[in-house]
Amino acid sequence: MARLPQYRRLLEVLDARKVVTVSSVELAEAAGVNAATLRRDLSCLGTCGTPGTGYDVPRLREMVDRALALGRDWPVVIAGAGYLGHALARSRGFNSGGLRVAALVDIDPLQVGTVVDGIPVSHLDDLDDLVHRHRTTLGVVATPANAAGDVVRRFAAAGVRAVLNFAPGFVAAPSGVTVRNVDLGAELQVLTFYAARSAPSVEVAGGPPG
Amino acid sequence: MARLPQYRRLLEVLDARKVVTVSSVELAEAAGVNAATLRRDLSCLGTCGTPGTGYDVPRLREMVDRALALGRDWPVVIAGAGYLGHALARSRGFNSGGLRVAALVDIDPLQVGTVVDGIPVSHLDDLDDLVHRHRTTLGVVATPANAAGDVVRRFAAAGVRAVLNFAPGFVAAPSGVTVRNVDLGAELQVLTFYAARSAPSVEVAGGPPG
DNA sequence: CAATGTGAATTCTTTCACAGCC
DNA sequence: GGCTGTGAAAGAATTCACATTG
Prior knowledge:
Number of strands of chain A: 11
Largest sheet of chain A: 7 strands, mixed
Largest interface: A-B, 79 and 79 residues
Number of domains of chain A: 2
CATH topology of the largest domain in chain A: Rossmann fold
Order of helices and strands of chain A: HEHHEEHEHEEEHEHEEHE
Helix content of chain A: 40-55%
Radius of gyration of chain A: 19 Å
CATH class of the largest domain in chain A: Alpha Beta
CATH architecture of the largest domain in chain A: 3-Layer(aba) Sandwich
Strand content of chain A: 15-25%
Oligomer: homodimer
C-alpha cells in the first residue's frame, strides 16, 4: 500500500509526543484520507486496533514497519551525485527505518573520490562491486535522462531487486526487478492543469500498486 | 490526467526524431500503459487521431500542451534553496514548456543573496513580494518538514493557486489552493515492500486526480 | 486493411453502514 | 457509548471488443 509510509510518519510523530492511543478518525484526518479507507488499509496488516478504544500507537507503528519490511537493514546505492543525488543522500526519508544510503556513484571525475555527508562517491564502473559488497537490494537513479536506461540495466545485472528512477521518461523493468518511475517535472506539469482551472483540492502522489 | 506529461515527453522525443505519425500501440508501449488506456486518455482532448493511420505527432503534441495549459508562461517560485531546491531549479522539467523557475527563497543568510543558475535567492520574507512581481501562480516547497505548513500558508496568502510540496508529511490545502504532496522518502519505502517480496513489476507514480 | 474512438464489461478502489466488541 | 473491522454499495479506472472511418 502506497499510503503506509504516510501513516508511518504520523505514528512516529505521535510516538515522539508520547501519545499512546489514536482513533482511525484522528489518524485519517492527519493523513488527509477517509477514515474507512485508513481502517481498511490497516486491516490488511492483521487485527491491530481495539474497538471502543482505537489503535495502540507503538504497536501499530511496529506492525506498519513490519509490513513495509523496515526494521531490517536496507543499504541503498544512488547513481548520480548531482544536486538531486546529494539531496536524497542527506534526506531523512532515505536514512531512517533501516534505510541507509551506503554509496553514491557518478561518472564526473570531479565528483568521484569526494565524500558526501560521510558517504563516498565512487565511479559508475564500480557499481557492481559496491552492490555486492554492501549487499544492496535497492537502487536509486538520479542521473540525467539519457543515462537512466543504462544505469537501471547495470543495477539489474548487479542483482538489485528494486530501482527508484527519478530520471524523466519511462524505464522498463528488466526481468526480476521492480522499477518505480517518479518524474518530478511531471508532478509540476500536472499542477499547471489545476492552476489553469483553479479547482482547489489536495492530492497525495503515489502510484497504484501493480 | 496524470499521464499526459508522460505522453508529452515521448512526443517531444518523437518530434525531435522527425517522426510524423505514431500509433496508439507504439506510444502506449513506450509509456508503459495499455493501448486502450492511452486512446481513452487522448480522446478526452477531443478527436485527435485518424483511423487507419494513427496520431499526427506535432498536432498531438500541441493538443497535449494545450490540455496541460503549457505554452503560456508559468513562473515558479521555489521555497528552500538546499540541494533539492537547487536540483529542481536547474532541472529541465521545471524549465520547459512555459514553466520557468523565476525565484528561490530561503531563510539561511548564507544562501540569501546568492544566484543559482541565473536565479536569485531571496529571503522568505520577500515571498509575497516576489509572487506578485512575477505574477506567480505555482509554488514549490523544498524545505525541511517543520517549515512546510508555514510556507504553504505564505504561498496561499500571496495568491498562489497551486503548490507542489516535497516536504514529508501531509499539508492541508488552504481554501482556493491545490496542494500536491510528494514524499520522496515514501517512494523508497514502498520499494522495500516490493524488494522484500521480490515480485517484479513496473510502476509509474502519480496520484489519482481528485 | 489498419487503427481510432467508444459502448460495455471488468477490475480495482473508495466509501457507506452496521454488527460486534470493549 | 465509542470505535474497529468488514460485507455490501458506489464509484473510478482500466481493459475488451468492435463498429466506424480513412
